[in-house]
Amino acid sequence: MTALTVRLPNSVHQKIKELAERDGISVNQFIASAAAEKMASVMTLDYLKSEANKGKRSDFEHYLSMVPNTPAPEGDERVQPVTR
Predict the structure, then answer these.
(1) Where does the pLDDT of residue 74 fall: very low under 50, low under 70, confident under 90, or very high at 90 and above?
(2) Between 82 and 28, whose confidence is greater?
(3) 24: domain range?
(4) How far apart are the C-alpha atoms of 80 and 76, rounded to whole Å?
(5) 57, 41, 39, 59: which is closest to 49 by C-alpha?
(6) In which band, very low, low, confident or very high, does the pLDDT at 60 lie, cut at 50, 70 and 90?
(7) Which of 25, 43, 64, 66 would staple 29 via disulfide (CB 3.0–4.6 Å)?
(8) Residue 49 lies inside a defined structural domain of this protein
(9) How many domains are contained in the chain?
(10) What is the pLDDT of residues 26-37, one digit of tens each?
């Protein structure tokens, strides 16, 4: 495990202490969890962008052309927006 010094505004530190106490965990656990959540979020976005870049418009259009051109089933219709 690595030790890390982080400088926080007093107000942020105080709020972290309050939230950690409310959750029954240490400030270290709270910050480690917050960092892990942020890391997972960034990595997920990177993955999704990478996968999206592999897509081809021609593939999309091919599969879209396979969708039958029929009315939506009852109850699934598109609702027209109300204009005023």
Answers:
(1) confident
(2) 28
(3) 10-65
(4) 12
(5) 41
(6) very high
(7) 25
(8) yes
(9) 1
(10) 999 999 999 999
Amino acid letter, 3: A
84 located within any domain: no
CA distances from 27 to 1, 12, 15, 22, 63 (A): 16, 12, 10, 11, 50
Q: Which residue has the higher pLDDT, 82 or 31?
A: 31
Per-residue tokens: 66: 């396979």
Going by the DSSP 8-state scheme, the letter that residue 77 receives in this structure is: P
Q: How many residues does the chain have?
A: 84
The answer to whether residue 71 sits within a structural domain is no
- DSSP calls for 12-76: HHHHHHHHHHHHT--HHHHHHHHHHHHHHHHHHHHHHHHHHHT--HHHHHHHHHTS---PPPTT-
Q: Residue type at 54?
A: K
Instruction: Kindly list the distances between the CA atom of residue 66 and the CA atoms of 52, 54, 58, 60, 78, in Å, as whole numbers in the listed order.
Output: 21, 21, 13, 10, 20
Amino acid at 13: H
